[in-house]
Amino acid sequence: MNTELQAFLLYRNKLASYAIFISFLYPILLIFIASILIMQMQTILFLRLLAIALLTIQVILILNKLNSEFKEYYDQKKINTKSAIEGTQRERLLNLITPIVKNKETRKPLDFIYAGKGRETGAYSSIRFSYIFLSRRILDLSDYTIQSVLAHEYVHLVANDYLKLIFISCVRILTLFCVASFTIVLLFRIPLLISIPICLINFALFRFFYKWAERILENTADIGTAILGFGPGLIHFFQLFEPIPSIKVWLTDSHESNKNRIKNIKNTINTLN
């Protein structure tokens, strides 16, 4: 592996781990504050039952998430071959990724899968296999652009981002329920003129922590692609694929705007030069 990339990933992996840990502390703080507020109220029984119900639901969801994700991660079987990219397209992708990666670097056989509906690219890794997802629309692009996308997903694979995303998803579930519980308690305990601004601030914090850790992973993959020498191709890709603005994208999409991503890549290229 590129020495510069290896050193960069070591630093960014630590940064992502800190972000996941801090994101985990945020809902814990909300639980602590909500518990204090509940104990000071007269309608303790109702809120206690509600808090217990929400806590039970989130524990079940988190355990179910961990069980399904790790079961899939430790699955010894290859992914469904019906969705595998085969034939001349597979040969084309193998030729494009050869200058970027060798199987001994990922320590697992690497294969290509058609991306599901609503996705353009992605990377997934189990204990035995690694996969890169590509949509049919991306396969229609030039080799120059596709190679940069492969480099981006390769950085995700060597950084073991899939495992980090499992814990990020669990923290998101915990945060979502804790924010809901805290908001309900706040509205019962504090006058609306005070509680509504606090709820709005809390929502802004929720949105920040919802995206923070995963945004670090995406930013790392962008910069890692530039370090590998495929930054210009990735810039071209971002110029072609600009997400359609929507409330859902604004709330849940962990990626920075393509404009900011292009700026980060250009800054990295200028620094390397």
Short key terms for the protein model shown above:
273 residues; mainly alpha; 3-stranded mixed sheet; 11 helices; 73% helix; elongated
SSE layout and pairing:
Blueprint: H1 3-39, H2 44-73, H3 87-97, H4 103-106, E1 110-114, E2 121-125, E3 130-134, H5 136-139, H6 143-158, H7 161-189, H8 192-227, H9 231-240, H10 247-252, H11 258-272
Parallel strand pairs: 1-3
Antiparallel strand pairs: 2-3
Helix pairs in contact: 1-7, 1-8, 2-7, 3-6, 6-8, 6-9, 7-8, 8-11, 9-11
If you had to describe this structure to a student in words, what would you say it looks like?
The protein is mostly helical and 273 residues long. The chain has one domain (3-272). The protein contains eleven helices and three strands. It has a three-stranded mixed sheet with strand order 1-3-2. Helix 6 packs across helix 8 (192-227), helix 6 packs across helix 9 and helix 9 (231-240) runs antiparallel to helix 11. The chain is elongated. The mean pLDDT is 81.
Order of helices and strands: HHHHEEEHHHHHHH
Instruction: Domain count, please report it.
Output: 1
Determine the fraction of residues in helical runs and give it as a percent range. Answer: over 70%
Distance between the termini: 20 Å
Discrete helix count: 11
Uncertain segments are none
User: In what range is the share of β-strand residues?
Assistant: 5-15%
Specify Rg, calculated over alpha carbons.
Answer: 22 Å
Number of strands: 3
